[in-house]
Amino acid sequence: MAAKTTLNAKNLESLGVQRLAELLIEISTGSAAHKRRLRMELAGNHGSAEVAREVRKRLASITRARTVINWHKAKALKTDLETQRKTISETIAADDPREAFELIWQFLAMADSIFERSNDRGGSLIQSFHRACEDAAAIARLVKIDVNVLADKVFKAVQDNGYGQYDNLLAAMVPALGKDGIDRLKTLFVQWSKEPKDKPAEDERKVIGWGAGGPIYEDEIYGTHRDLTVRMALQQIADAQGDVDAYIGQHPEETRKAPMIAADIANRLLSAGRAKEALETLDEADARGWANMPFEWQLARVAALEALGRAEEAQTYRWGRFEQALDGEHLRAFLKRLPDFDDLDAEEKAFAHARAFPNVHQALAFFLNWPAPAEAAKLVVIRKAELDGDLYELMTPAAEALAEKHPLAATILLRSMIDFALDNNRPSRYKHAARHLSDCASLTPHIDDFGNTRSHDVYVADLKRRHGKKHGFWSLVT
Question: What SS3 class is residue 322?
Fold first, then answer.
């Protein structure tokens, strides 16, 4: 049973309404966010209209603000945005979806004023607007808004998508728009694409940068941005209409040979049952050799081969990719298609290949990700001389993964990082090296046989002999 002082709803109820109210006032003092939340709850007692009024006031206040949003203010703003967004989508929409639709649109309109005064490096703030796009689509279906009106609103929003706040709006709105709304939206974008581009007089053109070919003008960038916006919108519309050819048509012919774009097109052709065209599209991609193609291209190719009934060729390709790059996903797909018990022999053959792979670090990563920790440990012990302690982003998680059941291998990995830091005079890593040495000491009692690896005491004695004057390191060793 939970103690009577445990913070949960039941225990707090025992304090009584008056005491809880006093505590809430005390806790909210000095916290604008807490006060806004309490006011919102109070407004809820008077119906959704009062809640909507509070939200509208808050959105207007955020829009009017001009203070710079630095990193420590961004967290509070994120909390505030999420409170307003959820209130609109969860509370107001349930009672008055039309009012909620207007409010979520007002919410989305705040983006420019927010991003003009902030640097959302982590993408935390933009996430709230992307979620609001999905909310807007869900609310639009509740309201049953006229699809032509909705198409116009989506079109204007995507036109003014300077900070990417409306990136997923069009795709989210497809169910609400329906066939007629999508057709209307397509017409609007096609018409926009045909409008003449404004080109100011030469002496009025604004230079916003310089490139290898000379000045970069603002009107040129706007034209490029408009063309890109139209192209991306028409691609999304083509997907919504299931029109693969229209989607392909929005890619300039010269870009269709780029491997990632070729894979993108091929996947859509495969979904449309056009496997032969999909394979042709992939094979026409830039000839960098199949082994050097992006993984997405590789997956699309084996899918096309299988769709064409060329399963054996697909299997040969998968195994070849594994042999060359130790690609675990290709190996899993290869094994999955083998008869019972044949997969066990093939897996052992794959492990033997990985153990002898020229790049020990690539082999170690493969075994850890498979996962095959015993194989990873065996690899570390046998090929310890090849380990590069500079690769701490691999060595650290590898040591952690092997520590419990394979302490000797974990110790070898930790020592590789210690040796690198000291042998290469990296004071910035001494703190980590000292921690690794302490971890080695903790692992020692769990190692039954060091084999041809030095014991902990011998290793430490050798460290002191070679690096005894590195006081910055030894001062950190406990």
Answer: helix
Please, what is the Cα angle at 466 between 461 and 471, to 5 degrees? 90
User: CB–CB of 334/315 below 8 Å?
Assistant: yes
Distance CA 169, CA 88 (A): 17
* Measured torsion, CA atoms of residues 185, 188, 191, 193, in degrees rounded to the nearest 10: -70
H/E stretch holding 427: none
Instruction: State the amino acid at position 249 in one-letter form.
Output: G
Measured distance CA(95)–CA(328) in Å, rounded: 51
Encode pLDDT of 2-21 as tens digits.
566 676 777 777 777 777 76
293 vs 184, residue with greater confidence = 184
* Amino acid sitting at position 35: K
Distance CA 66, CA 212 (A): 37
- Any residues with CB less than 8 A from the CB of 303 and at least 6 apart, and which? 267, 270, 278
The dihedral of CA 290, 291, 297, 299: what is its sign? positive
Q: What whole-number distance in Å separates Cα of residue 302 and Cα of residue 201?
A: 54
CA-based angle 141:145:147, to the nearest 5?
95
Average of per-residue pLDDT across 182-211: 83
The C-alpha torsion from 321 through 324 and 329 to 330, rounded to 10°, is 20
Q: Which of 453, 455, 432 is nearest to 444 (CA)?
A: 455
Taking a C-beta distance cutoff of 8 angstroms, is the pair 301, 309 a contact? no
- Predicted model pTM: 0.75
The arithmetic mean of pLDDT across residues 370-382, rounded, is 98
Q: What is the pLDDT of residues 425-475, one digit of tens each?
A: 999 999 999 999 999 999 999 999 999 999 999 999 999 999 999 999 999
